[in-house]
Amino acid sequence: MDQLDDFMEKKLNSESSIQRFEFKEEFWLSAQQMIEAEEEKERSNKRGFWWWRWLLLGIGLLGLVYILYGNGSESHVELRSQFQSSSVLSTTTINSETTIKNPTKAVESLENPSISAQFPSFTNLTSKKSVVNTLNNSSIGSNSLSLPNGLNLSIEANESHHDVPPTEPIVGTKNNRDELPQIEPVIDGKNNRDELPQIEPVIDGKNNRDELPQIKQIILTNDNYFDLPLREKPIQKLPNKPIQPINQSTNQPISPIYQSINLPILPVIISKKFVSIGVKGAYGVRLKDLSSYAYGLTSEIRMNRKISFHTDLLIRKINLLELDSNIAGYEISRIRTYAFGFVDKIQRQKASSVNYLEIPISVSYNWKRFSIEAGLLTAFRLKAKGQVEQYKALQYDQSFGGNSFADQYDNSLGVQKSINTDFVKYYWSAFYGVECHILPRLSIGTRYQYRFKPTDSIAAERYFATSSIDLIPNKFKTSLDFYIKYQLFSFKK
Amino acid sequence: MQHLKTYFLGLALLFFLSCAKDNYISVASDVPVFYSKFTFGGLSNVLTAGVESYLFTDYRHTDDSVTVYSGIFADPVCYIADTMQCRRQLSFFLRGFEKNSETLPAKFTVSEYNFGNVYDSLDTTSGVPIANIDDPRLGTASIQWIDNDGVLWRSDLLPQSFYKFYIRSTDTYIANERSQNTIKMSVTFSCTLYNPSFEAKKIEGEAVIAIGTP
Questions:
Q1: Are A258 and A79 in contact (CB under 8 A)?
Q2: By CB count within 10 A, which of A16, A128, A324, B157 is most buried?
Q3: B18-74 pLDDT, tens per residue?
Q4: pTM for the whole structure
């Protein structure tokens, strides 16, 4: 061993080892820089990871919004076309490129009654067939088109692209936009864009703007509508108000409430004012211990699109089984008899659940299909359900190590539906919550409730073991409800 | 028809005979059963089992095979913790009439009740002080009291100049907390108690007590 120690000492104290492990500050600085760079790299990786999570979350939300509202907008269009009246026309524009690509389609667009007044001269086309023939007969090479009323429309390709066979449908074979010839409109043989005359509407052969008559406001009647040629059928502006669908069977405007029935994706409420009554079921989680559930009626008074008032009548059943081991029960009788000491026979009603009638009143702010509510709640105790148990209290019991003042369970006297309880007769709460309309009549939501007077602070003194008293008040102060609501009826206000 | 009547009569008779009276005897009482009212040194005291004290009943055999029956009024908490430090504790000890007796003490049974005479448990005629509570003398009684100050007073430390111990009535009673048989008895007593300094104080009173028996 000594030899080994000597060898190690010699090695460590040798000049070469000292040189090898000699302290050099630049080494340490470089090592520190490497460590910091590595840490920075790890941090950036973590940041990137979180950014990815946020990005995925955003994409998911966008997808959700699209699912929820994308279909809803389509339903709007369908609804509009379904209940479209003859006086309501939508605006479309004619794409010149589309016209060249598919003349037939272009003419069909012209014939479509939803032609914009932006091109009044197009409405002077005599017929669909004439235009189609004209467009088909005119080759791309000549690219000229004679329009009625002396207006010539020519389409001319750039010289650099004249090698394209005129009979070949250009767009159909080549879809590379860069390779396509630049098409310039040529009117009356002039292709200089600046020199091109401004297209003026020509009505009755007059093209003088000042002399042009104002567009006539033609009043349609059953007699003259079908007599008017297509070009003379007036184009009316869309009404500057929300489209109101009409029931075709009754010819009456459809109430927005009933409209929502046909649009299951739309928010349930579109009208400004109404009153609704529904049913509601809730499952409450006591944040500390106990659970509960509630059911009953719910009502809503909508004042406008944004603000609503709510009130419910709910029966809340608080489950006490979780506290079974700690509940002593409500003592209904105690009979003491004497012998060597005393023996107490005690009957207690031990509640397994207690019911309250809750009346919450709240105001909510509605945004799209979501509502944010806040309000106050008062609750009154109704009854409790449980069983009657018999206990025995002995002044002295040898079997319990000599002395026993604690009550000993004797037997159960059966379950009773309505028993006494020490739980408080009423309490007040404040709450707030969020609700989401997932279907026209169906909503889900959550509500956080805080009780000003803890439900069972009084009962805790009687119901629970001394070791648990300090924990009890918090168990009943707060709860979180998850509920589902279904709208039964609604009335316009 | 005749047979039918007989049949129903017999059935009714069988029904009534089957309704036997319940022999359950409730010994529980809504008033205290055991108590002791006495004066000690001129001061009145009341001990009631089930109120401020519990009546512990027991029996045991001494080293010389004398059976000692006891009934002790004591606070149960204190009694379990430390018997001899428990204040306001009154004890009655009755010694058997014969050694090696595993049967009920003959003179304490119901058949031997209502003695009505002084139970000569504290015989001082010999002039020999009674040594202690475990004195193997047969057929004797002794009383022990721990006062409010925790001082132990005993009747068997010195010869009694004036004493009497009457067992006025006896009755069998329910089993105690250790499932021992018990005998309930009504007694009156008057004697002198001595503390370890041999100071004497008179105790006089009546009691309803119980003792444990084999």
A1: no
A2: B157
A3: 554 443 344 668 899 999 999 999 999 999 999 989 999 988 877 667 777 889 999
A4: 0.46
Which residues 5-64 on chain B approach chain A with CB closer than 8 angstroms? 27-34, 49-51, 54-57
Structure tokens of A94? 């004619």
* Residue A445, C-beta contacts closer than 8 angstroms, at least 6 positions apart: A371, A433, A434, A435, A436, A482, A483, A485
Query: Is the CB of B29 less than 8 angstroms away from the CB of A398?
Result: no
Instruction: Say how many C-beta atoms besides its own lie within 10 A of residue B15's C-beta.
Output: 9
- Compute the nearest-CA separation of A398 from chain B (Å): 6
Nearest to A276 by CA among A247, A298, A252: A298
Tell which of A345, A396, A405 to mutate to test the B interface (max B CBs under 10 Å). A396
Chain A residues whose beta carbon lies within 8 Å of the beta carbon of residue B49: 338-341
Contact A340 B178 (CB under 8 A): no
> What torsion do the CA atoms of B188, B192, B193, B194 make, to the nearest 10 degrees?
-170
Amino acid at A460: A
- Beta-carbon contacts of residue A179 (< 8 Å; ≥ 6 apart): none
CA dihedral of residues A13, A18, A21, A24 (deg, nearest 10): 150
Q: What is the amino acid identity at position A378?
A: T
Check if the beta carbon of residue A62 is closer than 8 Å to that of residue A54.
Answer: no
The rounded distance, in Å, linking the Cα atoms of B40 and B148 is 11
**C-alpha–C-alpha distance, residues B207 and B210, integer Å:** 10
Of A336, A341, A343, the CB nearest to B76: A341
- Tell me if B95 sits within 8 A of B123, measured CB to CB: no
Q: Give A394→chain B minimum CA distance, Å.
A: 10
Ranges A69-78, A179-188, A299-308, A465-474, most confident = A299-308
User: How far apart (Å, rounded) are the C-alpha atoms in residues A93 and A118?
Assistant: 8
Chain B touched by A392 (CB under 8 Å):
no
Distance between CA atoms of residues B49 and B33, nearest Å: 7
Q: Which residue has the tokens 């809750």?
A: A358
Q: Are B34 and B209 in contact (CB under 8 A)?
A: yes
Please measure the distance between the N-terminal and C-terminal CA atoms of chain B and give it in whole angstroms.
61
| CA–CA dist A437, A269 (Å, integer) | 9
State how far the Cα of A11 lies from the Cα of A290, in Å rounded to an integer: 72
Rounded Cα gap, residues A371 and A409, in angstroms: 51
CA-derived radius of gyration, chain A: 42
pLDDT at B207: 95
The answer to whether the CB atoms of A399 and B54 lie below 8 A apart is no
pLDDT in tens, A87-121: 333 333 334 333 334 444 444 444 443 333 333 33
Q: Do A340 and B54 touch (CB under 8 A)?
A: yes
Q: How far apart are the first and last CA of chain A?
A: 103
Is the CB of A344 inside 8 Å of chain B's CB atoms?
no
